[in-house]
Each structure stands twice: as structure tokens, then as C-alpha cells.
Amino acid sequence: MAKKKLLIIFTLMLLTGCFPSKKILEDVQLVSAVGYDYKSNNQVELNGMVAIPQRGEDVPPISQVFTATTNTSKMARALEQAESPKPFEIGRLEIALYNDRLAEKGIYDLVDTLQRDPSLGRDLYLAVVKGSTKTLLKEQYPLSETPSKYLLQLLNQNMNANIPKSNLHDFLYTYYGKGMDPNLPLLEMQGDRIRVKGTALLKDDKMVGQLKLEDSFLLKLLMEPFEKGIYEVKFKNDQFFTIQNLSSKVEYRFKDVKRSPSVDIFVKIKGRVSEAPKIPVSDPSLIEQLERASEKAMDRRTNKIVEKLQKLNVDTIGLGDLARSRTRGFDFKRWDEQYTDIPINVKVKVEITQAGITE
Amino acid sequence: MIFFKKKKKKQQETNTDPTKGTLTFPELMKKLRASADFSTVKQSSLSTFYISYYKTLVNPEFVHRDLLPYITDIQLKNLDDIQKHLPLDGMVKTNDVHDIANKVTEGFILIQMNKEDPEGLLVPSLSTENRQISIPETEFSVVGPKEAFVESLDTNLNLIRKRLPIPEFTVKEVRVGKLSKTRVAIIYIDGIADEENVNTAIQRVNDIEYDHIVDSSYINQMISDNENSPFPQLIDTERPDRVASVLSEGKVAIMADGSPHALTGPTTIVEFFSAFEDYFLNWTLASVIRLIRLMGVIFSVLSSPLYVAVLTFHYEMIPENLLATLVASRNDIPFPPILEAIVLELSIELLREAGARLPSKVGQTIGIVGGIVIGTAAVQAGLTSNVLLIIVALAALASFTTPVYQMSNTIRLLRFPFLLFAQFLGVLGVGICFAFIVSHLLKLTSLGRPYIAPLYPLRANDLKDALVRLPFSMQNSRPSLLRPQDKARMNKKRATAKHDIED
User: Fold this and answer.
1) In what helix (H) or strand (E) does residue A242 lie, and over which residues does it extend?
2) How many whole angstroms separate alpha carbon B153 and alpha carbon A8?
3) What are phi and psi of A344, to 5 degrees?
4) Cα distance from B419 to chain A (closest Cα, Å)?
């Protein structure tokens, strides 16, 4: 008995070195945003933004950017480390930005390091930036305490309303998945603001095209059901009105997938006229006219977007995957060859349920 | 181990009762007279007899008013004559020296015809000083009865018996303690309580081997199934209404003379989180309050360990909006989170201990001074972060919501192992510590019955009065854990029917 106890105590003493290393919150430098800039063919400039909380209750944190240029991003972090008083920890990373030139070259290698890091969450936002990410991260924005917080809230808010949802998980899913291609939000710095420009369309990991913000909304309509967003429609000559999306649904119908496929996409929008200057919206007969007008405008525009996607040979909507899911013995090779020429027809149905509380 | 046991047995045999053994009557009288408060009075009006008693145990008024007038003016030949003339019951005529020794020390009056005569008449005349029945203090309730037990066993039994006026209400009395000879009563309702439970309780009390029993909490520790467990295994209550209620469920209660508390068992862990006031409130309110209390306990045990774990290992887990606040509050503090937490927890324990030991009026002041002055000063001096101060204070507050005092002490203690595990292994450590505690609870029994029933083993029917309290109309069966002889409490159909006046 006594021997056994001694043995247990002895083994426990041997195990004293086996505790995990501590990362006490205030002793580490938490990187909250990273930006990658194109330097030369092999070199990437890595900018890590850290928010340093200040003493006192109402003092906002100061943001600092550490920059280093290397071939691999992990090495860059080691270089940045040389300037920092505390060790970097990447576990609180909220957003990773890629410079547009870099995105055109391909970003997979840079995303891969994020993907492998166990301390990173999969809900990390990725975005493409027009211009330098360094200047974007270095700027002080009056709208928010730190650039990373600004970016986080900006993307959060816009992915609810204007642009397709996308984060690290979605990127990897669409990147690895067959019959679909990733999309990322496209950002641009304008003065002391950051603006969502639209959506970057990627083929594999390379940016091949982009959509404007208005078109991003329509792309979102084609991709997922959602409950927000505003679209402006031209009614008559100089009469415009805006439709606020209250709920949208999308339905796909595939015909003859194996031989000569064709796709019908039906979008149903329940909306509300939120603004209609010079149009007497309280007239019920007019509502129908507004519905038709917006259907026509959206039809034209969405078909154009689909055409553009086909021309770029990117399947952002994920039609290939959708077709596979409803076809036995689906052949990806054939689909990929045919994709650019498949007749894809979008039909939008708008139902205006109300025109505001004055009705 | 066998060796130790043998030794223990030997010790028991040598420690014999001091009043037992060979003792002659003159020796006994000599022993008794050695005390200053023992008096022997010679009465010789018509006939001569001697009265001996402890002045401190017997009310002199009783001797002069209720005893002497009946026997002084009569010719008495022997003790039988005295017995005949006294209008009292419970008198014993004996020449057993031990009997005399025991009874006299308990407050009997010894009457002898001759001073050296070993035969005497023992007249019961115990007068004890009793406290008035007062309001329950540790188990206070806003509504409901406001009687609490006092230090006299007979008064306490009276308080219970008047709530259960049935012949099945049974009191078994045992004397425990070599020196104190404390009267211990085992109370149950015959025909409801499981015989096995009753016998276990009686046997455990009988087996107690100690020289003095001052309070029922001694018994609680001595008869509990696992003496080393920090969890109390019998409920300690000062409310006679609570005892009456659990007796009718089929439980057994143990009371000791001189203790204002009753022990009830077999208990389950959920019972420690149910206040008796839960039964005085509507069942919806009672259930919600019970759940809040349970969450309070969980918060109280886990909040500061989780703080340490998250700040030391898992900065990823902190919500985005809290991050800046936490870092800012932690920035100036020279200690790692674990030291900060232990220092703060210990100082709260200090405050609590000081408040409990000091007289109640000073105690309050200490609480305010300690809480507010030391708390804010520590934060301003940069010794602790204000976030942790809030957490620790809330945890202390939450631990007070436990209705049973002993359980709240357990909860006080429980967070320290959690803190250490959190420091070593983070949230994983908290999980491991939790597993240790759960496995300990799984093994624990109360009077031989599982401690965490009805949760495990799951007794779905008993859940009606566990984490929530369902309405009385659904409490139609007694807890199956107690194996009551009579399972049904009432007829459910009749209980749910609501009769209007025309019915």
C-alpha cells in the first residue's frame, strides 16, 4: 500500500513538466487582422494588425500594424516578432485581407496556413482589397475603434443584406468542392471609409472577375434565401423606386442533365416598396405595374450576371454541385466542358406585399 | 490494515464505562458527595428518611411543594409507603447501584430510609432550562410556519408530533456517548418508512463510539456513509415542519437531546437545493426559483475557475466585445490570473468567516467594510481586476442561495480544486475535476441509498420533486428511492378533481 502510494507520488512528480504552456491574455499580442500584399513574383508582404488596449475604462485601443516581406507567411510572422514586445498569437484573428493583385495570382497557399492553424476559428472572414492592404489597415477610421473591428462589423452587416455569405469555412468548402467556385467580398478604401465594392469571383483560388454591389445583391438572390437588401428599379423615364426584400427564395430546376442540360432558376421575392418618389404607390393597380417592372429589370440583370459567370467559366452559384445532387451517375467532366454553353434561364417573381405603414 | 483493526478492537475493550464495574453503594455516595452541589437532607418529623439530589438538577421548589408535603406528616415504615403516598409517576425502587448512579446524575431524587441503606426510591424531577421556541434562522422562510427546534428533545418531539398526530409516528430512543449519555431519538412513521432504512439508522446510531455527543452534527458526521466526503449525506434542518413533511415521505429523522437540529435521511443531492419554502409557493414559481438556485450553484463553483482557465489558456474563447475590457482590466495587475483568483477567493472567505464568527451587528459592518472598502481599494491599487472582483463577489452571493447551510459550505470549498485544475490544464482541467466530482457523487450513498438519485439511477417518477417541483396534485406517490412501504400518498383522481358548488 505504502509502496503503491509512493509510486503514484513519484510518477506525479515526473509529470510536472507535462502541463500545457500558458498563454496569459495580457502577455500576448493578439493579431486581429492580417493583410497580404503582392510584392514580387515570389514575395508577399504580410501586414498584421494588432489592437493594443489602453489603460482606463473609456480609452479606445490603439491599433498598430507590423509588416514583413518574405516568401512564406509563417516566416513573415517570425520577422514581425522581432519588433513586438509580446509574442504574437493568431487565435483571435477576425479577418484576412488579400490584395487584388495577389488574388489574381492565387491565394490558396496563404489560406492554407490559416486552415492548418488549430487556434483559428472557421468563421474567419476573408476579403479581397483593391489596393494595398497595408494602407487600409494602417488608417485610423472615425467610424470604429480599430480597422479590424470596422471590417468585422462592415462585413457582418453587409453579408446579411448585400453580398453572398462567405468565410473561411465557405471558402474552403467551395474551393475543395466539385461543381462550385468560391467568392469573396471585395473591399476598397475611400478616404476614411472602407467600402464594400462588390463580390470577387474566383476560379479555384484566383480572382477572375468581379461584380458590382448591386449585382452582388442579385447574385445573393440566386444563391441563398435571405431577408434583407434593397434594389433600385427604373419605372418610367425618370421615375425610380426601390424594393426592399422582405424574404426571398430560390429554386433550381435542371433538365436533361446527362445529354444537353439546361437550368431554370426561379427566384421569388416578397418585397416592400420602400421609396417611390413621384409614384402614387397607394393605387392597387399600380402595384402590379411595379411588380412587373421590377421583375423585368431583375430578370434582365440576373440573366446578364449568369452570362458573365458562364463567360468567366466560374460556377459561383454552385450549379454543378446542385445538378450532381439530383442526378444519378453525374459526370463532372462533361458538365465542366458544357458549363459555359448551358442555357441558364433566370425567372424572377416579385410580390409587393406592402408599401409602408401609410398604406 | 487487518493489524490496525485488531488494535482498535482492543482499545475499545479497555475503555470501559467508568460507571460500570464493581461499585459499592458507599463508594457511590462518596463520589456523589464530592460535588458541592449534591445535597443529602435528613427529614425527621414523624419518621426519618433521607433525600439526596443534585441541587443544580432538581428544582428545589419541586421538592418543597410537590414532594415533602405528601410524606412528612405521615408515619412511614418503608419505601413502599412513600411510593404509595407520592402522587407522581415514574418512580423506581431499586438497590442496583448503577441504576442509582445513572438516575441521580440525570436529575432523580433519591429517597432512603437509612443513610447506609443501598435500597432507595428514585423520584423523577428533572428541571431543565429551556430556550423559548424561536424563529428559524438558517432556514428562514417568508411564508409558512415560523417555529424552530430548541435544545430540548422533548420539546422538539412535541413540535413534530403535533404535526403528525397518528399512532404510527414512532420514536426509538438510544443513549449515545460514554460521558454525555445523550438521548438520541430515531423518528419514523411506521408503515411508511422502509424498515431497512429505519434499521440502518438505528444500528448506525447504536454503533457510535464516542465519549460525548454535544450536537446532532456530531452524529451526522459519525453515521454518514463516507466520512471523508465534503458533501453532507444527511440533511440538517431546524424546521419541525420540514421534518414532519419528510417523515411522511418515508424518511427517517434523527434528533439528539441538546441539539436544535434534526437529521433526515436518506437524502439525495437535489434535496440540498430545495428550500422548504418551495412548497409554500405556487409550483411554477417554486420550480423557476429552484432552477435559478441550481444555476447559481453551478455559477458559484465554475465561474472563477473558468475565468482562470480562459485567461491562462484559451484567449480564443473570450467574446469579441469583452476582449478589450478584459485586457484593459488585466493590464496593470502584477499577478497571473490564478494568484489573483486565489487571493480574491480567500479574502472573500475571510470576510465570510469573520462575518460568521463575529456578533451579528458587527458582522454586517465587517461585510460592508470588507466588501466595499477593500474591494474598491484592491482594484484601484491594481492588485485585482474589477472583472474578477465582480465574478468572485457574484459567485459568493450565488453560493448563499443554497438553502442548506452545510451544502453551501461544501460549495465554498469545491471551487478551490477546480481553480487548481483550471490553472494546470485549462478548461480540460475543469472538465477533469468535474469528472472526479461526478464519480465521487456516483459512489456516494446516504444511509445506503444512492446519493444522486433520481438523476442516477434515473427514477423518472421521482423527478416531479427534484430539479423542479410539480403541483401537489401530481405528487401522488412517495419517492421510490426511499422504498416506502406505502407508496401512494393520495388518490390522484380525487386530488385533481375540482368540485364546483353544484356538484
Assistant:
1) strand A239-255
2) 49
3) -110, 125
4) 15
Element (H, E) at A99: strand A95-99
- From the candidate CATH numbers 3.30.70.270, 3.40.50.150, 3.30.470.30, 3.30.300.210, the one assigned to the domain spanning A225-359: 3.30.300.210
C-alpha cell at B159: 413540535
Strand order in the sheet with B182-189: B169-176, B182-189, B252-256, B262-265, B235-237
The Cα–Cα gap between B73 and B79 comes to 15
Handedness of CA B426, B427, B433, B439 (dihedral sign): negative
H helix or E strand, kind and range, residue B302: helix B283-312
**One-letter identity of residue A211:** L
Name residues 139-168 of chain A within 8 A of B (Cβ): 145, 152
User: Which chain B residues have a beta carbon less than 8 Å from that of A25?
Assistant: 310-312, 315, 318, 326-327, 330, 337
Could you tell me which of B188, B185, B124 has the C-alpha nearest to residue B155?
B185
Q: Are B480 and B487 in contact (CB under 8 A)?
A: yes
pTM reported for the whole predicted model? 0.83
Is B120 an 8 Å CB contact of chain A? no
Select the residue of A23, A56, A59 nearest B313 (Cβ to Cβ): A23
Report the alpha-carbon distance of residue A104 to residue A29 in Å, rounded: 31
In a domain, B144, yes or no: no
Report the residue from B315, B316, B425 with minimal CB separation from A19. Answer: B425
Residue B452 CA, chain-centre distance (Å), reads 20
Q: Looking at the structure, tell me whether residues B158 and B299 fall in a common domain.
A: no
pLDDT tens digits, B398-422 = 988 888 888 988 998 999 999 999 9
ipTM given for this complex: 0.81
What the block records as the C-alpha cell of A185 is 467580398
Domain containing B165 equals 153-267
The three cell numbers of residue B111 are: 429517597
d(CA B163, CA B156): 11
Q: Band of the pLDDT at B373, cuts 50, 70, 90?
A: confident
Q: CB neighbours (10 Å) of residue B488?
A: 10
Same domain for B350 and B293?
yes
A19 and B424 within 8 Å at the Cβ level: the answer is yes
Alpha-carbon distance of B17 to B179, in angstroms, equals 8
Residues B57 and B106: beta-carbon distance below 8 Å: yes
Digit-coded pLDDT (tens) for A26-54: 888 888 899 999 988 888 888 889 888 87
List the Cα angle B443/B447/B450 in 5-degree steps.
Answer: 35
Q: Is B461 exposed, middle or buried (0-12, 13-18, 19+ CB in 10 A)?
A: middle
Whether the per-residue pLDDT at A57 is higher than 90: the answer is: no
B136 vs B238: CA distance, rounded Å: 7
Chain B residue numbers with beta carbons less than 8 Å from the beta carbon of A125 are none
Domain boundaries, chain A: 26-213, 225-359
Rounded to the nearest 5°, which phi and psi values hold at A201? -95, 125
Distance from the Cα of A179 to chain B's closest Cα (Å) equals 34
Residues 227..256 of A with a Cβ closer than 8 Å to B: which?
Answer: none
Cell of A79: 520577422
Do A319 and A344 meet the contact criterion of CB atoms below 8 Å apart? yes
Q: What is the distance in angstroms between the Cα of A14 and the nearest Cα belonging to chain B?
A: 15
In the block, residue with C-alpha cell 515570389: A42
Q: Which amino acid does the sequence have at B142?
A: V
Q: How close B330 comes to chain A (CA, Å)?
A: 6
Handedness of CA B100, B103, B107, B111 (dihedral sign): negative
Residue B439 and residue B403 share a domain:
yes
Gap between the Cα atoms of B227 and B220, Å rounded: 9
Q: Are strands B108-112 and B92-94 parallel, antiparallel or unpaired?
A: unpaired
Decide if A53 touches B, using CB distance below 8 A.
Answer: yes
Which residue do the cell numbers 464495574 mark? B21
